[in-house]
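The records we work with from here on pair a chain with its fold. The integers have meaning only within a learned vocabulary of local backbone shapes. A complete example follows; check for yourself that the lines match position by position.

:::
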Amino acid sequence: MDSTTLRIALRQQLESLVRSGVQQGPRIDPALWQTLVDKENVVTTAVPPKSVPAAEAPRPTVRKPTDTAPAVPVSASATATSSGVATGQVQANLSALAHDSWQTSSVDRESRIRLLAEIDQEVKACEKCPILSSNRTQTVFGVGNVMPRLCFFGEGPGADEDKQGEPFVGAAGQLLNKIIQACTMQREDVYILNVVKCRPPGNRNPAPDEVSHCRPFFERQLEVLQPEFICCLGGVATSALLETKLSVGRLRGKLHDYKGAKVMVTYHPAYLLRNPSSKKYVWEDMQKLMKAMGIQLPGKDSPQS
């Protein structure tokens, strides 16, 4: 990332924190502070921070792979503050959302946007599954932060997703948003993708050959995104990613490995809509996942539908 982009991103982050009522900004190196705050535009309500490694500075995010405008997520701080988390913990959570190594990643932000866009074009042109490709309105690739610590990995598009071209926008998606928000984050802080990129008719489970055809796409997505953590939502996603026949009930509650990423398995939001009593298990899983990420959650019950 060039210095101009970093300067703009840091300025946006500080100004957004001030507007959110946070009185103590995230810690950055004093040298960066001097380049960020000029004489004509001084953020007077933020206190110049003490020196810590620059890698802890929040990183920019984007809503869609084709959006190249730099943006910094401030939602974690705003949500945490409204939930009653102390300002110091807001700062710690912001730091925890950042990759320790994102600034020196082998694939930088601009390259990730370009590579994801290239894979997306391949997905749009794919007709390996005759039933899926002939019945789709459009493909559903993925959305969110291209520099994520955490990815949510689901099964496949439903009717709403097929219409809008974005994963998890229907009823199950609304519940997923609440789960993410309960973890002091927003959709923009994470990346969301599915196993298959076309809607199976009648929302049936994707067939084994359909998963096989889409495997190169989601594996390359994850290779570009390089998440530190992945949350598998439901049995189809779990089976595809971990290549196992074990049930969600057997695998949930502990971290697994996928090519160096830590994987938490839990129930799909659509399953929770049919079985509300299982929300408590998903909340237990998310608490363990957030603890592994170093994010402290406010004391609360599981998110409601």
